[in-house]
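Ops channel
N.P.: pipeline sanity check, posting one input/output pair.
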């Protein structure tokens, strides 16, 4: 059966963001090392990316490594960075086959050089693709992004490009790492945790939040469809009354 059948194609979220959590607990449950969970998580990434492209989601953003994740044991950080490089090398095919453009947000200069190089290569090879934009949040923290944003705006003021009075929501948006992306419509977090963990604080101002117990390595297209169906059954009022909407 076509797995997209249950969806209303007129009401798809324009931007889905996912906090991919639970790799470590998945591994522990199987009696494996944490790294095996991260490895298995790459299958869930591929399946989710392909399913989003098939459904017609225009923007998918995946939280892959946070600024706080640098505080994990060195060996885990090192293996995660290696996994990033090998996944980029392997998945360029998936991106080209599905006409997907790769984008990255975060403090990318903190990534190992090899990872930066591989990332730039895949970004440039996929830059003409236009069916969907896949954004990887790497060494990403929303507070770091906001600090960077305020510094840029301050510089624009000093350079007399804008005045303080001219600052509005659009100014902020233009100086975030996500400047080319619409606001998040649906934020999914796996593994049962119900927190934001420093992810896209500005961009999720009016997102619908969806939490699932499923651990990230077990996440499949059926779980994605379930989240989107749930999203489509909600009434997004944006501060208005229900009557105003109908
Ligand atoms: C998410 O899984 C992956 C990253 C944060 C890199 P975790 O590694 O956080 O898994 P748990 O939360 O320990 O189960
Ligand atoms: C958030 O997960 C970061 C990523 C999924 C990349 P964490 O597992 O690091 O978050 P906390 O520690 O539970 O808040
Ligand atoms: Mg976690």
């Amino acid at each position: 059966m076509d797995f997209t059948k249950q969806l209303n194609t007129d009401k798809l979220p324009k931007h889905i963001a996912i906090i991919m959590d639970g790799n470590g607990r998945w591994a522990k449950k199987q009696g494996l090392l944490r790294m095996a969970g991260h490895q298995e998580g790459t299958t869930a990434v591929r399946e989710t990316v392909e399913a989003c492209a098939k459904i017609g989601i225009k923007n998918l953003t995946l939280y892959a490594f946070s600024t706080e994740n640098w505080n994990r044991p060195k060996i885990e950080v090192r293996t995660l960075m290696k996994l990033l490089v090998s996944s980029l090398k392997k998945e360029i095919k998936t991106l080209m086959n599905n006409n997907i453009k790769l984008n990255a947000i975060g403090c990318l200069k903190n990534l190992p050089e090899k990872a930066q190089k591989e990332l730039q290569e895949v970004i440039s090879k996929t830059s003409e693709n236009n069916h969907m934009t896949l954004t990887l949040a790497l060494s990403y923290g929303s507070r770091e992004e906001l600090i960077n944003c305020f510094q840029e705006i301050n510089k624009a003021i000093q350079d007399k490009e804008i005045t303080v009075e001219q600052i509005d929501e659009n100014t902020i948006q233009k100086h975030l790492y996500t400047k080319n992306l619409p606001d998040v419509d649906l934020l999914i977090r796996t593994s049962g945790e119900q927190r934001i963990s420093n992810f896209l604080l500005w961009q999720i101002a009016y997102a619908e939040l969806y939490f699932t117990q499923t651990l990230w390595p077990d996440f499949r297209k059926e779980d994605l469809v379930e989240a989107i169906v749930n999203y489509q059954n909600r009434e997004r009022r944006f501060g208005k009354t229900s009557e105003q909407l109908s």
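N.P.: looks fine end to end. The first helix runs from residue 23 to 29.
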